[in-house]
Design a protein that fits this description.
The chain is mainly α. Helices cover 55% and strands 0% of the residues. The radius of gyration is 36 Å and the shape is elongated. The relative contact order is 0.11.
Length: 113
Amino acid sequence: MLVLFGILIIIASIILGLIVLIQNPKGGGLSGTFGGVGNQLMGVKQTTDVLEKGTWIFAAVVGILCMVSPAFIPKEGANTGNDLINNISTSVPQKAATPAPANTATMPADTGK
């Protein structure tokens, strides 16, 4: 299910990016690109309205998909990694006791000289 949401988010983001790139920041946009053709079909004002509405709609779709998709993350399953954490041994291995070296040499007494 998360793969489906991921694909939908990517598609909506690409479409949103294309809509934003079509718009001209100075107001010409798509209507200026096609010359008089856009004006004859739907008018200059309607072209910018459609692109603006499309921007808001696809931005809302991406936002909603991003907020809804975490609800479909599986709560329990093999992919959560809990099995690995539970199987880790936390006990510290005991080291074998090694005997202290025997001090066979005696030190001469300190005479203070």
